[in-house]
């Protein structure tokens, strides 16, 4: 599938071991290869974020966030996780709607912030963004 403005893209911290392992897991779970992946530190992220977020409020939240572009809008942190799950498991939309409802969403967002703050200490840093198998390289954007 070629990359188009409607292509879902997951932006992740390419220097984070937890983030890299999460991408590897998503590569296995995404059997239909719907997602594309790009590091937050990359050119694709810079260009898209500048186009969508002229005020740069989004860039202040980075790189402590994953960012999911669903083809129309950017979702950050906990909402990004729910957006990715909705794409990969459409049958779980009712459960995801419950998880998006306050106060459950507040707890999810708080848990996300806690993990994001501790991820380098617990999982360490990577010197480079690990792409994975050669067959998956076409799914990665600069």
Automatic annotation (TrEMBL):
Keyword Transmembrane among record annotations: yes
Transmembrane segments: 94-115
Keyword tags: Membrane, Transmembrane, Transmembrane helix
Gene Ontology MF annotations: protein-disulfide reductase activity
Matches recorded under InterPro entries: DCC1-like, DCC_oxidoreductase
Record flagged with keyword Transmembrane: yes
The name this protein goes by in its record: Thiol-disulfide oxidoreductase DCC
Source species of the chain: Leptonema illini DSM 21528
């Amino acid at each position: 599938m070629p990359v188009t403005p409607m292509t879902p893209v997951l932006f992740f911290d390419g220097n984070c071991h937890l983030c890299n392992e999460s991408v590897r897991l998503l590569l296995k779970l995404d059997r239909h290869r719907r997602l594309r992946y790009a590091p937050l530190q990359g050119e694709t992220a810079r260009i898209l974020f500048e186009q969508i977020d002229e005020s740069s409020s989004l860039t202040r939240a980075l790189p402590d966030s994953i960012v999911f572009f669903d083809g129309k809008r950017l979702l950050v942190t906990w909402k990004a996780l729910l957006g990715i799950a909705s794409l990969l498991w459409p049958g779980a939309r009712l459960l995801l709607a419950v998880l998006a409802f306050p106060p459950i969403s507040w707890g999810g967002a708080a848990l996300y912030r806690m993990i994001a703050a501790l991820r380098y200490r617990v999982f360490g840093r990577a010197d480079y963004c690990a792409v994975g198998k050669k067959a998956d390289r076409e799914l990665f954007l600069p």
